[in-house]
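Reopening this one. Same input as before:
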Amino acid sequence: MGVNVSRMVGNRTPDSPKPVQKIALSECFPKWRLCAVIFFVAIGALAFAYSLMAYFRVDSGWQAIEVSSSAQTNCSSEFSFQYNLGAGQLSSTAEHKAIVALYTQLTVNAHQLFHPTQTFDGVHNICFINAHPNEIIDVDPVLYRAFEVLQRHKSRLLYLGPIYAEYENLFSCKDDSETVSYDPYQSSEVAQYFAQIAAFANNPSDINLELLGDNSIRLYISDNYLAYAQEIGFVRFLDFFSIKNAFVIDYLADSLIAHQYTEGHLTSYDGFMRTLGGNQTVYTYQLYDRNEQHIYPAAVMQCQGPICIVSLRNYPLNSMEQFRYYELANKEIRFPYIDSVDGWCKSAVHTLTGYAKQSSCSDIVVQLLPIYTTENLSESQLALLRENDIYTIYGKDYVLYYNEASLVLTDLYQKGDTAYRAVLW
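Same output, byte for byte:
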Protein backbone atom coordinates (compact mmCIF):
# COMPACT_ATOMS: atom_id res chain seq x y z
CA MET A 1 0.00 0.00 0.00
CA GLY A 2 1.41 3.37 -1.02
CA VAL A 3 2.01 6.31 1.29
CA ASN A 4 0.32 9.58 0.43
CA VAL A 5 3.02 12.14 1.33
CA SER A 6 0.95 15.15 0.35
CA ARG A 7 -1.88 14.14 2.70
CA MET A 8 0.55 13.74 5.62
CA VAL A 9 2.08 17.12 4.97
CA GLY A 10 -1.25 18.70 4.53
CA ASN A 11 -2.57 17.38 7.82
CA ARG A 12 0.54 18.49 9.86
CA THR A 13 -0.11 21.20 12.37
CA PRO A 14 2.32 24.04 11.67
CA ASP A 15 4.55 25.33 14.50
CA SER A 16 3.60 28.73 15.68
CA PRO A 17 5.68 31.15 17.81
CA LYS A 18 4.89 31.32 21.47
CA PRO A 19 3.46 34.56 22.71
CA VAL A 20 6.09 37.01 23.97
CA GLN A 21 5.79 37.96 27.59
CA LYS A 22 6.79 41.50 28.22
CA ILE A 23 8.44 42.22 31.57
CA ALA A 24 8.71 45.75 32.68
CA LEU A 25 12.10 46.64 34.17
CA SER A 26 12.10 48.66 37.29
CA GLU A 27 13.45 52.14 36.90
CA CYS A 28 14.21 52.32 40.60
CA PHE A 29 17.78 52.76 41.97
CA PRO A 30 19.65 53.56 38.67
CA LYS A 31 22.71 54.84 40.60
CA TRP A 32 23.03 51.57 42.49
CA ARG A 33 22.92 49.62 39.25
CA LEU A 34 25.64 51.84 37.75
CA CYS A 35 27.80 51.37 40.84
CA ALA A 36 27.37 47.62 40.59
CA VAL A 37 28.45 47.65 36.96
CA ILE A 38 31.51 49.74 37.81
CA PHE A 39 32.33 47.47 40.75
CA PHE A 40 32.26 44.28 38.69
CA VAL A 41 34.23 45.89 35.85
CA ALA A 42 36.87 46.95 38.37
CA ILE A 43 37.01 43.43 39.81
CA GLY A 44 37.55 42.05 36.32
CA ALA A 45 40.27 44.61 35.56
CA LEU A 46 42.05 43.82 38.81
CA ALA A 47 41.89 40.10 38.09
CA PHE A 48 43.31 40.68 34.61
CA ALA A 49 46.09 42.89 35.97
CA TYR A 50 46.96 40.31 38.62
CA SER A 51 47.10 37.57 35.99
CA LEU A 52 49.30 39.75 33.80
CA MET A 53 51.65 40.52 36.69
CA ALA A 54 51.83 36.85 37.59
CA TYR A 55 52.66 35.99 33.98
CA PHE A 56 55.58 38.42 33.86
CA ARG A 57 56.79 37.87 37.42
CA VAL A 58 60.05 35.95 37.70
CA ASP A 59 60.55 33.66 40.66
CA SER A 60 63.57 34.10 42.86
CA GLY A 61 66.27 31.43 43.05
CA TRP A 62 68.37 29.75 40.38
CA GLN A 63 67.13 30.50 36.88
CA ALA A 64 68.48 30.03 33.36
CA ILE A 65 69.14 33.42 31.78
CA GLU A 66 68.28 33.72 28.09
CA VAL A 67 68.88 36.63 25.76
CA SER A 68 66.06 38.84 24.58
CA SER A 69 63.94 37.33 21.80
CA SER A 70 64.47 40.51 19.75
CA ALA A 71 68.27 40.38 20.01
CA GLN A 72 70.61 40.66 17.06
CA THR A 73 72.67 37.64 16.06
CA ASN A 74 74.71 36.65 19.10
CA CYS A 75 76.71 33.80 20.64
CA SER A 76 74.37 32.95 23.53
CA SER A 77 73.58 29.51 22.07
CA GLU A 78 77.17 28.52 22.89
CA PHE A 79 76.72 29.20 26.61
CA SER A 80 74.56 28.27 29.55
CA PHE A 81 74.05 31.07 32.07
CA GLN A 82 72.58 30.20 35.48
CA TYR A 83 71.87 32.96 37.99
CA ASN A 84 70.50 33.12 41.53
CA LEU A 85 67.88 35.84 41.14
CA GLY A 86 66.68 37.89 44.09
CA ALA A 87 69.82 37.50 46.17
CA GLY A 88 70.65 41.20 45.80
CA GLN A 89 68.78 44.41 46.57
CA LEU A 90 66.51 44.30 43.50
CA SER A 91 63.43 42.13 43.20
CA SER A 92 63.91 38.97 41.19
CA THR A 93 61.75 40.38 38.36
CA ALA A 94 63.63 43.68 38.15
CA GLU A 95 66.99 41.92 38.40
CA HIS A 96 66.01 39.48 35.67
CA LYS A 97 65.01 42.30 33.33
CA ALA A 98 68.28 44.15 33.89
CA ILE A 99 70.52 41.13 33.60
CA VAL A 100 68.82 39.91 30.41
CA ALA A 101 69.36 43.31 28.78
CA LEU A 102 73.03 43.32 29.75
CA TYR A 103 73.68 39.70 28.81
CA THR A 104 71.99 40.20 25.45
CA GLN A 105 74.23 43.12 24.55
CA LEU A 106 77.37 41.33 25.74
CA THR A 107 76.70 38.25 23.60
CA VAL A 108 76.01 40.41 20.56
CA ASN A 109 79.30 42.26 21.13
CA ALA A 110 81.27 39.03 21.57
CA HIS A 111 79.81 37.49 18.42
CA GLN A 112 80.83 40.49 16.37
CA LEU A 113 84.27 41.13 17.88
CA PHE A 114 85.67 37.61 17.59
CA HIS A 115 84.18 36.74 14.20
CA PRO A 116 86.95 35.71 11.76
CA THR A 117 85.01 35.78 8.49
CA GLN A 118 82.34 38.49 8.75
CA THR A 119 82.55 42.24 9.25
CA PHE A 120 80.01 44.48 10.96
CA ASP A 121 79.39 48.20 10.56
CA GLY A 122 81.64 50.21 12.83
CA VAL A 123 83.30 47.14 14.38
CA HIS A 124 87.02 46.52 13.95
CA ASN A 125 86.90 42.79 14.59
CA ILE A 126 89.15 39.86 13.66
CA CYS A 127 87.85 39.77 10.10
CA PHE A 128 88.43 43.52 9.69
CA ILE A 129 91.98 43.22 11.02
CA ASN A 130 92.72 40.36 8.60
CA ALA A 131 91.57 42.51 5.71
CA HIS A 132 93.80 45.45 6.68
CA PRO A 133 97.34 44.15 7.16
CA ASN A 134 100.14 46.62 7.90
CA GLU A 135 97.64 49.32 8.93
CA ILE A 136 97.22 50.92 12.34
CA ILE A 137 93.76 50.04 13.65
CA ASP A 138 91.90 51.04 16.80
CA VAL A 139 90.16 48.01 18.32
CA ASP A 140 87.74 47.40 21.14
CA PRO A 141 89.43 47.07 24.57
CA VAL A 142 88.01 43.54 24.77
CA LEU A 143 90.05 42.45 21.75
CA TYR A 144 93.10 44.36 22.90
CA ARG A 145 93.09 42.56 26.27
CA ALA A 146 92.73 39.22 24.48
CA PHE A 147 95.77 40.02 22.36
CA GLU A 148 97.67 40.97 25.50
CA VAL A 149 96.99 37.55 27.04
CA LEU A 150 98.39 35.78 24.00
CA GLN A 151 101.41 38.06 23.87
CA ARG A 152 102.09 37.66 27.59
CA HIS A 153 102.32 33.89 27.19
CA LYS A 154 104.24 34.14 23.89
CA SER A 155 101.55 32.11 22.16
CA ARG A 156 101.46 31.85 18.36
CA LEU A 157 98.07 30.07 18.26
CA LEU A 158 96.37 33.18 16.89
CA TYR A 159 98.38 33.05 13.65
CA LEU A 160 97.21 29.61 12.46
CA GLY A 161 94.08 30.99 10.75
CA PRO A 162 94.64 29.29 7.36
CA ILE A 163 95.08 25.91 9.06
CA TYR A 164 91.98 26.41 11.19
CA ALA A 165 89.99 27.04 8.00
CA GLU A 166 91.08 23.63 6.68
CA TYR A 167 89.98 21.93 9.89
CA GLU A 168 86.58 23.56 9.60
CA ASN A 169 86.32 22.08 6.12
CA LEU A 170 87.37 18.71 7.51
CA PHE A 171 84.75 18.81 10.25
CA SER A 172 82.06 19.60 7.67
CA CYS A 173 82.81 16.54 5.53
CA LYS A 174 79.99 14.07 4.94
CA ASP A 175 82.16 11.11 3.96
CA ASP A 176 85.65 9.83 4.78
CA SER A 177 86.69 10.17 1.15
CA GLU A 178 86.24 13.94 1.41
CA THR A 179 88.49 14.26 4.46
CA VAL A 180 91.67 13.39 2.54
CA SER A 181 91.73 16.89 1.08
CA TYR A 182 92.02 18.47 4.55
CA ASP A 183 93.67 15.89 6.81
CA PRO A 184 97.47 15.93 7.27
CA TYR A 185 97.31 12.42 8.72
CA GLN A 186 96.02 11.11 5.38
CA SER A 187 97.60 13.46 2.85
CA SER A 188 101.27 14.35 2.51
CA GLU A 189 100.24 17.31 0.38
CA VAL A 190 98.07 18.70 3.17
CA ALA A 191 100.85 18.00 5.68
CA GLN A 192 103.28 19.96 3.53
CA TYR A 193 100.84 22.88 3.25
CA PHE A 194 100.34 22.91 7.02
CA ALA A 195 104.09 22.88 7.55
CA GLN A 196 104.46 25.92 5.31
CA ILE A 197 101.70 27.84 7.10
CA ALA A 198 103.13 26.87 10.51
CA ALA A 199 106.54 28.14 9.42
CA PHE A 200 105.06 31.51 8.55
CA ALA A 201 102.88 31.59 11.69
CA ASN A 202 105.79 30.90 14.04
CA ASN A 203 108.06 33.51 12.50
CA PRO A 204 107.47 37.06 13.83
CA SER A 205 109.40 38.33 10.82
CA ASP A 206 106.55 37.09 8.61
CA ILE A 207 103.52 37.84 10.76
CA ASN A 208 103.17 39.63 14.07
CA LEU A 209 100.44 41.53 15.86
CA GLU A 210 101.94 44.72 17.23
CA LEU A 211 100.26 46.22 20.31
CA LEU A 212 100.84 49.96 20.12
CA GLY A 213 99.01 51.06 23.28
CA ASP A 214 95.70 52.87 23.75
CA ASN A 215 93.90 49.95 22.04
CA SER A 216 95.77 50.50 18.78
CA ILE A 217 97.24 47.54 16.91
CA ARG A 218 99.01 46.76 13.66
CA LEU A 219 99.00 43.37 11.99
CA TYR A 220 102.39 43.18 10.35
CA ILE A 221 102.62 40.70 7.45
CA SER A 222 105.72 40.40 5.29
CA ASP A 223 105.57 40.84 1.53
CA ASN A 224 106.63 37.22 1.15
CA TYR A 225 103.74 35.92 3.24
CA LEU A 226 101.23 38.25 1.59
CA ALA A 227 102.34 37.01 -1.83
CA TYR A 228 102.01 33.40 -0.70
CA ALA A 229 98.52 34.06 0.72
CA GLN A 230 97.45 35.71 -2.53
CA GLU A 231 98.78 32.75 -4.52
CA ILE A 232 96.92 30.22 -2.37
CA GLY A 233 93.86 32.43 -1.97
CA PHE A 234 93.31 33.08 1.73
CA VAL A 235 92.99 36.19 3.89
CA ARG A 236 92.23 34.52 7.22
CA PHE A 237 95.56 35.16 8.94
CA LEU A 238 94.24 35.51 12.52
CA ASP A 239 91.66 33.35 14.27
CA PHE A 240 91.03 32.31 17.89
CA PHE A 241 89.37 29.06 16.73
CA SER A 242 89.09 26.48 19.53
CA ILE A 243 90.18 28.88 22.28
CA LYS A 244 87.73 31.65 21.31
CA ASN A 245 85.15 30.84 23.96
CA ALA A 246 87.76 31.03 26.71
CA PHE A 247 88.16 34.71 25.86
CA VAL A 248 84.44 35.22 25.34
CA ILE A 249 83.49 33.67 28.67
CA ASP A 250 86.06 35.89 30.41
CA TYR A 251 84.54 38.94 28.72
CA LEU A 252 81.01 37.94 29.69
CA ALA A 253 81.94 37.13 33.28
CA ASP A 254 84.11 40.20 33.84
CA SER A 255 81.40 42.49 32.47
CA LEU A 256 78.69 40.91 34.61
CA ILE A 257 80.86 41.17 37.71
CA ALA A 258 81.61 44.83 36.91
CA HIS A 259 77.84 45.42 37.04
CA GLN A 260 77.65 43.71 40.46
CA TYR A 261 76.12 40.47 39.19
CA THR A 262 78.06 37.88 41.16
CA GLU A 263 75.56 35.13 42.02
CA GLY A 264 75.85 32.87 39.00
CA HIS A 265 78.00 30.89 36.63
CA LEU A 266 78.61 30.54 32.88
CA THR A 267 79.40 27.31 31.04
CA SER A 268 80.24 26.92 27.36
CA TYR A 269 79.33 23.88 25.28
CA ASP A 270 83.01 23.32 24.46
CA GLY A 271 84.50 22.99 27.92
CA PHE A 272 84.88 26.38 29.61
CA MET A 273 83.29 27.43 32.91
CA ARG A 274 83.46 30.57 35.07
CA THR A 275 81.70 31.34 38.30
CA LEU A 276 80.93 34.98 38.99
CA GLY A 277 81.71 35.03 42.70
CA GLY A 278 79.32 33.86 45.37
CA ASN A 279 81.97 32.91 47.94
CA GLN A 280 79.55 30.71 49.86
CA THR A 281 78.09 28.94 46.82
CA VAL A 282 79.21 25.38 46.10
CA TYR A 283 79.35 24.51 42.41
CA THR A 284 79.71 21.16 40.71
CA TYR A 285 81.43 20.36 37.43
CA GLN A 286 81.00 17.05 35.62
CA LEU A 287 84.29 15.46 34.56
CA TYR A 288 84.24 13.16 31.55
CA ASP A 289 86.79 10.70 30.26
CA ARG A 290 87.16 8.38 27.31
CA ASN A 291 88.48 4.84 27.32
CA GLU A 292 88.62 2.96 24.06
CA GLN A 293 85.35 3.94 22.31
CA HIS A 294 83.34 4.71 25.44
CA ILE A 295 82.79 8.07 27.12
CA TYR A 296 82.21 8.01 30.89
CA PRO A 297 80.93 10.58 33.39
CA ALA A 298 84.02 9.82 35.40
CA ALA A 299 83.46 12.03 38.46
CA VAL A 300 81.98 15.25 39.79
CA MET A 301 84.28 18.07 40.82
CA GLN A 302 83.19 20.18 43.81
CA CYS A 303 84.27 23.80 43.95
CA GLN A 304 83.35 26.88 45.95
CA GLY A 305 83.53 30.58 45.19
CA PRO A 306 85.19 32.16 42.14
CA ILE A 307 86.83 29.61 39.84
CA CYS A 308 87.74 29.17 36.18
CA ILE A 309 87.72 25.73 34.55
CA VAL A 310 89.06 24.62 31.16
CA SER A 311 88.44 21.11 29.85
CA LEU A 312 90.15 19.90 26.66
CA ARG A 313 88.69 16.77 25.01
CA ASN A 314 89.56 14.81 21.87
CA TYR A 315 85.96 13.60 21.54
CA PRO A 316 82.55 15.32 21.17
CA LEU A 317 80.05 15.40 24.02
CA ASN A 318 76.97 17.05 22.53
CA SER A 319 75.20 17.74 19.26
CA MET A 320 76.54 21.30 19.10
CA GLU A 321 80.02 19.87 18.55
CA GLN A 322 79.20 18.13 15.29
CA PHE A 323 81.23 20.74 13.40
CA ARG A 324 84.18 20.63 15.81
CA TYR A 325 85.01 16.95 15.35
CA TYR A 326 85.03 14.27 12.70
CA GLU A 327 85.04 10.53 13.41
CA LEU A 328 86.45 8.34 10.66
CA ALA A 329 85.16 4.87 9.86
CA ASN A 330 88.16 3.39 11.68
CA LYS A 331 87.03 5.26 14.85
CA GLU A 332 89.87 7.78 14.75
CA ILE A 333 88.67 11.26 15.65
CA ARG A 334 89.92 14.58 14.32
CA PHE A 335 89.47 17.41 16.80
CA PRO A 336 90.12 21.18 17.03
CA TYR A 337 93.15 21.28 19.35
CA ILE A 338 96.13 22.06 17.17
CA ASP A 339 99.87 21.86 17.77
CA SER A 340 101.13 25.30 16.77
CA VAL A 341 104.48 23.81 15.72
CA ASP A 342 103.15 21.82 12.74
CA GLY A 343 99.38 22.42 12.61
CA TRP A 344 98.36 18.82 13.39
CA CYS A 345 95.62 17.99 15.88
CA LYS A 346 97.15 16.09 18.79
CA SER A 347 96.28 15.02 22.32
CA ALA A 348 98.53 13.51 24.97
CA VAL A 349 95.47 12.14 26.84
CA HIS A 350 91.77 11.97 26.05
CA THR A 351 90.80 14.64 28.60
CA LEU A 352 92.84 17.30 30.37
CA THR A 353 91.16 19.74 32.74
CA GLY A 354 92.80 22.78 34.27
CA TYR A 355 91.32 25.12 36.87
CA ALA A 356 92.33 28.10 38.99
CA LYS A 357 90.88 30.69 41.33
CA GLN A 358 93.17 33.55 40.32
CA SER A 359 93.74 32.93 36.60
CA SER A 360 91.17 33.51 33.85
CA CYS A 361 89.97 30.85 31.40
CA SER A 362 92.02 32.48 28.65
CA ASP A 363 95.17 32.46 30.80
CA ILE A 364 94.62 28.78 31.57
CA VAL A 365 93.89 27.56 28.05
CA VAL A 366 96.83 29.38 26.46
CA GLN A 367 99.18 27.64 28.91
CA LEU A 368 97.39 24.28 28.95
CA LEU A 369 96.94 23.71 25.23
CA PRO A 370 100.65 23.34 24.33
CA ILE A 371 100.92 20.64 27.02
CA TYR A 372 97.82 18.86 25.69
CA THR A 373 98.74 18.92 22.00
CA THR A 374 101.75 16.62 22.30
CA GLU A 375 102.38 12.91 21.90
CA ASN A 376 103.10 12.35 25.61
CA LEU A 377 101.80 14.21 28.63
CA SER A 378 104.49 16.01 30.63
CA GLU A 379 103.76 15.94 34.36
CA SER A 380 106.74 18.22 34.91
CA GLN A 381 105.01 20.91 32.84
CA LEU A 382 101.79 20.39 34.78
CA ALA A 383 103.82 20.79 37.96
CA LEU A 384 105.06 24.16 36.70
CA LEU A 385 101.46 25.25 36.20
CA ARG A 386 100.69 24.15 39.76
CA GLU A 387 103.36 26.56 41.00
CA ASN A 388 101.20 29.31 39.49
CA ASP A 389 98.09 27.90 41.22
CA ILE A 390 96.73 26.29 38.07
CA TYR A 391 95.75 22.73 38.96
CA THR A 392 95.00 19.87 36.59
CA ILE A 393 93.07 16.62 36.29
CA TYR A 394 93.54 14.02 33.58
CA GLY A 395 92.24 10.52 32.97
CA LYS A 396 94.14 7.41 31.99
CA ASP A 397 93.13 3.74 32.22
CA TYR A 398 90.09 4.47 34.42
CA VAL A 399 92.13 6.59 36.84
CA LEU A 400 91.71 10.34 37.40
CA TYR A 401 95.02 11.93 38.34
CA TYR A 402 94.79 15.28 40.16
CA ASN A 403 97.37 17.50 41.82
CA GLU A 404 95.51 19.67 44.34
CA ALA A 405 95.31 17.98 47.73
CA SER A 406 92.14 19.84 48.78
CA LEU A 407 90.16 18.94 45.65
CA VAL A 408 86.92 17.07 46.32
CA LEU A 409 85.88 14.51 43.70
CA THR A 410 82.58 12.71 44.17
CA ASP A 411 80.38 10.29 42.22
CA LEU A 412 83.26 8.32 40.74
CA TYR A 413 81.83 6.20 37.94
CA GLN A 414 81.14 2.59 38.89
CA LYS A 415 79.09 0.19 36.82
CA GLY A 416 79.68 -3.49 36.23
CA ASP A 417 83.35 -4.20 35.75
CA THR A 418 84.15 -0.52 35.07
CA ALA A 419 85.19 1.56 38.08
CA TYR A 420 87.02 4.84 38.18
CA ARG A 421 89.30 5.84 41.02
CA ALA A 422 91.11 9.08 41.85
CA VAL A 423 94.81 9.39 42.57
CA LEU A 424 96.63 12.44 43.95
CA TRP A 425 100.08 12.85 42.45
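So the earlier flakiness isn't reproducible anymore. For the record, Confidence is low (pLDDT under 50) at residues 1-14, 51-55.
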